[in-house]
Design a protein that fits this description.
- The chain has 17 helices and no strands.
- The chain is an all-alpha fold.
- It has two domains: 2-169, Ankyrin repeat-containing domain (Serine Threonine Protein Phosphatase 5, Tetratricopeptide repeat, Alpha Horseshoe); 173-308, no CATH class.
- The longest helix has 34 residues, at 171-204.
- Mean pLDDT is 84; it is low at 347-354.
- InterPro entries: Ankyrin_rpt-contain_sf (IPR036770), PGG_dom (IPR026961).
- Residues 179-291 form the PGG domain.
Length: 354
């Protein structure tokens, strides 16, 4: 029902707008408010469908600016609306005209991307200060692609380049992101160290012991022993790898560029290795249980296996949300600004009749 109502609303907007376009320019300006506040309100709220209908039939709206000399793309940057900003890829060389707009303080489009998000509620949707900073860096790098090269190092009236403004505006969130990364790495390092210690000791205290004459394991030919040996080795290697990865996070220099790719990627690798090491450790425990009791406690095998995997399930349950958020922010979010086939000019523009 919501989709039907939404479709009906868009059809109504298009019909009304087509009727408005039959009027002269001055009357059109009065209809949507001088100086064009309707389209800027839509850009501020991220109403892509509304703007698409208006601009498709009246492309001149792209050039309109508010009292701060902000176009709809400038406002989309200030409010971090990706869908509206991506329309800039659909307007061709016109974007070279729009990107040179500056406000009264000499801020260009990249300066606006360097500012802290004006709507904190939108930034709070992203969990963790490190991921919030990563999202801000993604925006800054994307806007840098569309502005002219001279704008990258251009100073505003306060003598600040976009890069310097970004560091100044995001100083607090960088500190919070560093603390968040360090705390997360410290917690995971503790778990990885305990696992590495346990599985390393288990490798030299084999279930069933060794043959005195040859020193070979007693249950060497058993399938359960082979499963134990392989899973124990996997757990040791992955826990050591996880430990080293978290150690590299702990000793990082925490420059703003590190939050864009390096630190989140290391955290994903470390968590993945830690998940594998915990699972492999539990498999080794079940295999050792099977070897020691040699099938004499078959009725307890299934309950033991279930209980053994409870720590794995509990750990994954506690950290899977963080893991998925990291993957989404690091890999998936890179496609947020990928130019798509926008419906902006997909239909033939109807000529405006004066």
């Amino acid at each position: 029902m919501k989709k039907v109502v939404h479709k009906q609303a868009l059809d109504l907007i298009q019909y009304v707008w087509e009727q408005v376009l039959l009027l002269d320019d001055e009357t059109i300006s009065c209809q949507i408010g001088k100086p064009w506040p309707l389209i800027f309100t839509a850009a501020e709220r991220g109403n892509l469908d509304f703007l698409t209908i208006l601009i498709r039939l009246y492309p001149d709206l792209i050039f309109k600016v508010d009292q701060n000399t902000y176009s709809i793309f400038h406002i989309a940057i200030l409010n971090r609306h990706e869908d509206i900003f991506k329309m800039i890829y659909q307007i061709g060389s016109i974007k070279n005209v729009i990107t040179i707009y500056k406000d009264r303080e000499g801020n260009n489009m990249l300066h606006l991307a360097a500012r802290v998000l004006e709507s904190p509620s939108r930034l709070n949707v992203i969990p963790g200060a490190a991921l919030q900073l990563q999202h801000e860096l993604l925006w800054f790098e994307e806007v840098k692609k569309v502005v002219q090269p001279r704008h990258i190092e251009e100073k505003n009236t306060h003598g600040k380049t976009p890069g310097a403004l970004f560091i100044e505006q995001h100083k607090e969130i960088m500190k919070e992101g560093e603390h968040w990364m360090r705390d997360t790495a410290d917690s995971c390092m503790l778990v990885a160290t305990l696992i590495a210690t346990v599985v390393f000791a288990a490798a030299f205290t084999l279930p069933g012991g060794n043959v005195q004459a040859t020193g070979t394991p007693v249950f060497l030919e058993k399938i359960a022993f082979k499963i134990f040996a392989i899973s124990d080795a996997i757990s040791l290697v992955t826990s050591a790898s996880s430990l080293l990865t978290f150690l590299s996070i702990r000793t990082s220099r925490y420059a703003e560029r590190d939050f864009l790719w390096s630190l989140p990627n290391r955290l994903i690798i470390g968590l993945t290795a830690l998940f594998i090491s915990i699972g492999a450790m539990m498999v080794a425990f079940i295999a050792a249980f099977s070897i020691v009791f040699n099938g004499r406690l078959c009725q307890y095998s299934l309950p033991t296996a279930v209980v053994a995997f409870l720590p794995v399930i509990f750990f994954i349950w506690q950290h899977y949300r963080l893991f998925l958020d990291m993957i989404d922010s690091t890999y998936t979010s890179r496609s947020l600004f990928k130019p798509s086939k926008s419906p902006l000019f997909s239909k033939r523009v109807k000529p405006k009749v004066a």
